[in-house]
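Colleagues,

For the teaching module next term, I've prepared a clean inverse folding example: a structure given as tokens, and then the sequence designed for it. I'd like students to try predicting residues themselves before seeing the answer, so please don't circulate the second half yet.
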């Protein structure tokens, strides 16, 4: 079966891997562009990319790379990260996220939910006036 080739804004993944951060910054949305080009990236984001590169290099061929844990929820997913495993901190735990090509241009925090979704069920004690007489 032929798999659909991934394109980001008309550019295939192989070409995306080779372009510079500044050229990639011109492809993403306005918020990410301001972050990548205007303000630049600080040392901690380069350190994260370096750790991801190292984990990917040390991984056995055909195996997933080791999970790299990070608190950087505001890190933008760049093409270089694709295929890596990142443990994104959500306030209590590190949620393992496998970076896929579709995630390019998004923030890491979008893939690690920080709250437990509400499960609407029966009301608990103290939920209404009628529960006083139980």
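(Answer key — instructors only)
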């Amino acid at each position: 079966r032929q798999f659909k080739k991934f394109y980001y804004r008309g550019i295939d993944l192989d070409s995306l891997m080779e372009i510079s951060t500044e050229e990639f910054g011109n492809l993403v949305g306005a918020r990410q562009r301001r972050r990548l080009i205007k303000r630049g990236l600080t040392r901690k984001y380069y350190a994260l990319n370096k750790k991801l590169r190292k984990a990917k290099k040390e991984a056995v061929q055909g195996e997933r790379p080791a999970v790299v844990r990070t608190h950087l929820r505001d890190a933008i997913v760049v093409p270089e990260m694709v295929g890596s495993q990142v443990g994104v901190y959500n306030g209590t735990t590190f949620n393992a996220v496998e970076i896929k090509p579709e995630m390019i241009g998004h923030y890491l925090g979008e893939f690690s939910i920080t709250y437990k979704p509400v499960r609407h069920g029966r009301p608990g004690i103290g939920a209404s006036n009628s529960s006083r007489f139980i």
